[in-house]
UniProtKB/TrEMBL annotation, chain A:
Residues 236-255 are annotated as: Disordered. The keyword Lyase does not apply. Keywords: Repeat, TPR repeat. InterPro entries: Csn1/TTC4_wheel, TPR-like_helical_dom_sf, TPR_rpt. GO terms for biological process: protein folding. One of its GO terms (cellular component) is nucleus. GO terms for molecular function: Hsp70 protein binding; Hsp90 protein binding. This is Tetratricopeptide repeat domain 4. Pfam families: Wheel. PANTHER family: TETRATRICOPEPTIDE REPEAT PROTEIN 4 (PTHR46035:SF1). The keyword RNA-binding does not apply. Residues 278-382 form the Cns1/TTC4 wheel domain. Belongs to the TTC4 family. The lineage of its organism: Eukaryota, Metazoa, Chordata, Craniata, Vertebrata.
Automatic annotation (TrEMBL), chain B:
Gene3D superfamilies: Leucine-rich Repeat Variant (1.25.10.10). Residues 303-356 form the Protein HGH1 C-terminal domain. Transmembrane segments: none annotated. InterPro entries: ARM-like (IPR011989), ARM-type_fold (IPR016024), Hgh1 (IPR039717), Protein_HGH1_C (IPR007206), Protein_HGH1_N (IPR007205). This is Protein HGH1 homolog. Coiled coil: none annotated. It comes from Gasterosteus aculeatus aculeatus. Residues 128-298 form the Protein HGH1 N-terminal domain. Belongs to the HGH1 family. Residues 373-382, 390-402 have a biased composition (Basic and acidic residues). Residues 373-416 are annotated as: Disordered.
Length: 404, 416
């Protein structure tokens, strides 16, 4: 019941009231500076859920969450709430969080099979997008166990199998799926893709097998060629099952051949060169020349067995002598070649005009680590004399007891 | 044959209440009868006997059930549709014959009897689908035999679609271990027979489903020539629909490798040739064996030839280096008929494209006189092939003059 005065006043008051708004904001108004921030704190307008819901900062949100996760609610409702939560995270591509929600939902063991199946299938999808194929597979399989005809689970399972390269199993999943959903395009597509991969995989296996066989055959041919020539290979370091070394030498080298072990042919050199058989049936060896006087070596990657030592020495010490040869002594005709029989501490002289093959065939020549090595010394030098102490010198040509 | 009284007597022995030993002897006797042409003809004319036999497939005695199935297999194998046979008007007939039999002058054949009684084929099909049923294979044989002729085939397909659906059959066929007591190999020939009919082919090659694709791996199924032959026959029939060739040759089905694998051998091909082949044919191991059965080999070649009817098909086969496979195959093949089929295929593969308007070889109009000449040429070729084959055989026999000859018994589906 307004008095006349008030009525009078109210009109003026109204203007005054309205004028106030032009300068003042209403209580709890949004300020121009931070209205966006403010908006973001109202649950309804939130674009993104905050990582942690601090009840101080976001009281309304905390309140809502409490409602959602109220332990007093029946498990199905809780589980459904968690499923929705998971789905929301999934939409934001926050797969980790989604997985947590789904897992929590499953933990409720609400007994609703339909819901559990969806939780598992969705979790499988989240795992899939994270690249956790095995987890995706396991979840899809679990979902399939509950509901064998659940289409999404079947598709996800097949996809996981494909990613895990279990193509046969992928086809099986698709076939199972197609029984229940014969016209599903996705399943048909997956089946065709899985089948194709499977057959490509089988082809690759066949190709690899043939290649392996070829390599093996080549290796066998190589070892046979070496054996035929009577050349002995020495295994580098191999534990012998029985007694002493000396008697086992021959056994060891034939064992190397029979084992077809690459170790017997392995080269210690960084170049990785290995003996090989050429198209004409000749062997080419990696050969080491040792110069103990100057602690130097020369490595020839492919020394044909038909070549003689002079052929190579003439080139190596032909035009220019090596830089380490400070005394300028290493002329080819000044050099004497030897190979060492370590066992018997014996050095065998090798004539420069001998072919490599001939040298290798010597009864006491053992090829170590697939690389024959020869010692080069200057004839009649003080170093040589010193070098010979404690060793026996044999001449390979004259000693009749050392027949090839 | 038997007199009416004797027939009636037999019928009475076949009633379910009869003593088992009498029943058993009767079924044995009838089985013997079904082993020859005349006996079959007689039995087929006795609808009531057939009904009784069929009823006894539910007998508690396994031996009797087995005999009855074998009788039905024999009868279905010997199925020759007579012109007109007057319906049996035996007054002693105790079973209810469907009205259609007596009113219409139907050909009294096994299929009519089986279908006339509404329950029969459906019952058989239901048993077929039962994973525990012990005589599932026998049912497959019967159905396979029944579908040899187009008319009966149509009937079986119709009932099949109504009761079980072709999809179920394909599922059973392709599922290993569906039934522990049955191997379902005879579903192969059944499917092959069914695909004589366009409706069956439509179903097999339904683009929205995955049906024919599931049959493909069985072209290599070592354990059963019946199954293999059935599958290859099915594929061959399907390839008569040249409108579907593009789809069949596409990745969705990819029929080509499965047709070529049984014809490919262990011979080593160059790396270049290998890389051009379909994936499944690359780098085959040295123990690869070719298809054993010459008839199946011939069917495979015929199927491939069918696929060359369209320009697209020819290109596909040329692109996929089918030629090296055929080259090696030709070197290996000894049978003259198969070699002839191979040569036909090779001619198309290496020949020039036909002139404009004739790209689809199946749609080309052949003038009548040319057609006559071609037919004559075909007949002549067949005769020459037969002669060649005979000569080869005689040479072989001369070589092993004291080795006993192997008697390849006729496979007419008869069980004795």
């Amino acid at each position: 019941m307004a008095s006349k005065e008030v009525q009078h006043d109210s009109d003026d008051g109204m203007d005054e009231f309205m004028d106030k708004f032009k300068t003042q904001n209403y209580k709890n108004a949004f300020s121009e500076d931070n209205w966006e921030e403010e908006f973001d704190r109202i649950p309804m307008f939130m674009k993104k859920a905050p990582e942690e819901i601090d009840p101080q900062k976001y009281p309304e949100l905390a309140c809502l969450q409490a409602i959602l996760h109220d332990e007093d609610r029946p498990p199905e409702e809780q589980a459904k709430g968690l499923k929705d939560e998971g789905n929301a995270y999934f939409k934001e591509k926050n797969y980790q969080k989604a997985i947590l929600s789904y897992t929590a939902g499953l933990k409720k063991k609400c007994g609703d099979q339909e819901l559990d199946t969806v939780l598992l299938t969705n979790r499988a999808a989240a795992h899939f997008y994270l690249g956790n194929m095995r987890s995706a597979y396991n979840d899809a399989a679990a979902a399939k166990k509950i509901k064998p005809e659940h289409l999404k689970a079947l598709i996800r399972g097949a996809q996981s199998c494909i990613e895990l390269r279990n193509f046969s199993e992928a086809v099986q999943w698709c076939d199972e799926g197609l029984k229940a959903h014969p016209t599903d395009k996705k399943l048909q597509e997956l089946r065709a893709a899985a089948d194709k991969h499977k057959r490509a995989k089988e082809r690759d296996a066949r190709k690899a097998k043939i290649k392996q066989k070829k390599l093996l055959a080549e290796k066998e041919a190589l070892l046979a060629a070496i054996k035929d020539r009577g050349i002995k290979l020495l295994q580098s370091v191999k534990p012998r099952p029985s007694g002493s070394n000396s008697e086992d030498e021959d056994e060891g080298s034939s064992a190397a051949i029979s084992q077809l072990s690459l170790d017997g042919l392995g080269s210690q050199e960084a170049t990785g060169a290995q003996v090989f058989l050429d198209e004409q049936g000749s062997l080419h060896w990696p050969v080491l020349f040792l110069y103990p006087e100057h602690q130097q070596t020369d490595f020839i990657s492919a020394f044909s067995e038909k070549d003689c030592f002079l052929d190579h020495l003439a080139i190596m010490f032909g035009e220019e002598l090596p830089p380490w040869d400070t005394d300028r002594k290493y002329h080819p005709n000044n050099l004497q070649l030897y190979f060492e029989d370590e066992e018997k501490d014996t050095l065998y002289q090798v004539n420069q005009e001998t072919s490599l093959l001939h040298a290798l065939q010597h009864k006491r020549f053992f090829v170590k680590s697939g690389t024959p090595s020869f010692i080069v010394l200057v004839k009649i030098s003080s170093f040589s004399k010193q070098f010979f102490t404690g060793k026996t010198i044999r001449n390979t040509m004259e000693d009749s007891s050392l027949l090839w | 044959m038997l007199s009416e009284t004797e027939a009636a007597e037999l019928l009475s022995f076949l009633s379910p209440e009869t003593r088992p030993d009498v029943k058993g002897q009767t079924t044995e006797y009838i089985l013997g009868m079904s082993g020859n042409r005349d006996g079959c003809r007689f039995l087929r004319s006795k609808a009531d006997l057939l009904h009784a036999v069929f009823a006894l497939t539910s007998d508690p005695s396994i031996a009797i059930v087995k005999d009855c199935y074998h009788i039905l297999i024999n009868l279905s194998a010997d199925e020759t549709l007579h012109q007109v046979i007057s319906p049996d008007s035996s007054a002693d007939c105790r079973l209810n014959l469907h009205l259609a039999l007596t009113v219409q002058h139907y050909r009294s054949s096994l299929i009519q009897v089986l279908v006339a009684d509404v329950k029969v084929l459906p019952v058989l099909l239901k048993k077929l689908l039962d994973p525990e049923y012990v005589f599932a294979d026998q049912i497959c044989s019967i159905l396979s035999n029944l579908t040899r002729h187009t008319k009966t085939c149509k009937t079986v397909l119709k009932v099949l679609q109504e009761e079980a659906g072709l999809s179920q059959l394909v599922t059973i066929f392709c599922t290993e271990g569906y039934n522990k007591k049955a191997n379902f190999h005879y579903l192969g020939p059944l499917l092959s027979n069914l695909t004589q009919l366009p409706e069956a082919r439509d179903y097999m090659m339904d683009k929205d489903r995955c049906v024919i694709q599931r049959l493909l791996p069985f072209t290599q199924y070592q354990a059963s020539v019946v199954r293999r032959g059935g599958v290859v026959g099915t594929l061959r029939n399907c390839c008569f629909d040249h409108a579907r060739h593009e789809w069949l040759l596409s990745d969705a089905v990819d029929i080509l490798p499965f047709l070529l694998l049984p014809l490919a051998g262990p011979e080593e091909l160059t790396e270049e040739e290998n890389e051009g082949l379909p994936v499944d044919l690359q780098y085959l191991p040295e123990d690869k064996k070719r298809e054993d059965d010459p008839d199946i080999r011939k069917m495979l070649l015929e199927t491939l030839l069918l696929l060359t009817a369209t320009g697209g098909g020819r290109n596909a086969l040329k692109d996929k280096s089918v030629y090296p496979i055929m080259r090696e195959f030709h070197r290996w093949e000894k049978d003259v008929h198969v070699t002839a089929a191979c040569e036909k295929l090779v001619q198309v593969l290496i020949g020039d494209e036909p002139e404009q308007g004739m790209e689809n070889l199946m749609e080309v109009d052949i003038p009548e006189d040319v057609e006559v000449k071609l037919k004559e040429a075909d007949v002549k070729e067949q005769e020459e092939l037969e002669k060649e084959q005979e000569e080869m055989r005689q040479e072989e026999e001369k070589k092993k003059s004291d080795a006993p000859g192997t008697d390849k018994g006729q496979d007419d589906g008869l069980t004795r």
